[in-house]
Amino acid sequence: MAYAYNLAAWETQAHDRAETYELLDEYLSPEIDLITVQLSENCSDLNTFLYDFTALLEHIKDECGEDVQIVVIDDFWDIDKGKMKKTVCEEMNIDFVDLSDIRNDEIYMAGMGTVVEGDDGIEHVIEHDGVARHPGDDGMGVIAERVLELVKNP
C-alpha cells in the first residue's frame, strides 16, 4: 500500500513546524518500509529550517522505527535549500536524491501550454508560470528513477 500526503503546512508554518506533525502521524507506523520526503519549495522563512528539517526526519524515524528507509528529494528550484537538505541527510545518514543537474532546466519543467489531467479527471492547459515551472513528465521521470535506484541499492 502506498500513500501520498501533502505536508505544505509544514513548509509555510515556520513559527512552529512541529505543530504540523499531527497531520502526518496517522500515516506513520513501524510497518512502513519507505518514506520519500519532498519539502522546502514553499518555505520562505528559513531561519529555523535546518533545525526543523532535522527534527521532522527524527520524528519520522521515531514513529516508523530505525528500519524505515527515508529518501529526501532535492529542491527543484533553489540550490541553497537543496544544500541545507543535503547537509541534514549527510549528518543523519539518510538517502538524498540530487537534482542539481536538472535544477531550473526548462527541459524538465511542465511548461506553459502543456495539457495535464487534474484530480477531477478533466484536462487542463497550464497557463500559470508558477505551475509551468514545476517538474513535467521528464522531470518527474528523472526523480522517480533516482528514487528507485536508492530503493534498489540503499
Strand-residue proportion: 5-15%
Tally of alpha and pi helices: 6
Q: What topology, given as strand order, has the largest sheet? A: 1-2-3
Q: Over the alpha carbons, how many angstroms does the gyration radius reach?
A: 16 Å
Order of helices and strands: HHEHEHEEEHH
Low-confidence stretches: none
How many strand units? 5
Query: How far is it from the N-terminal to the C-terminal residue, by CA?
Result: 20 Å
Judging from the principal axes of the Cα atoms, what is the shape? globular
Helix content range? 25-40%
Task: State the secondary-structure class.
Answer: alpha/beta
Mean pLDDT equals 94
Largest sheet: 3 strands, parallel
Structure description:
The chain is of the alpha/beta class and 154 residues long. It is built from six helices and five strands, in the order ααβαβαβββαα. The strands form two sheets. The chain has a three-stranded parallel beta sheet with strand order 1-2-3, sandwiched between helices.
Name its key features:
154 residues, single chain, globular, alpha/beta, two-stranded antiparallel sheet
Record the SSE blueprint.
Layout: H1 8-12, H2 21-25, E1 34-37, H3 49-64, E2 69-73, H4 79-92, E3 95-97, E4 115-117, E5 123-125, H5 129-132, H6 137-152
Parallel strand pairs: 1-2, 2-3
Antiparallel strand pairs: 4-5
Question: Can I get a quick summary?
Answer:
This protein is an alpha/beta fold.
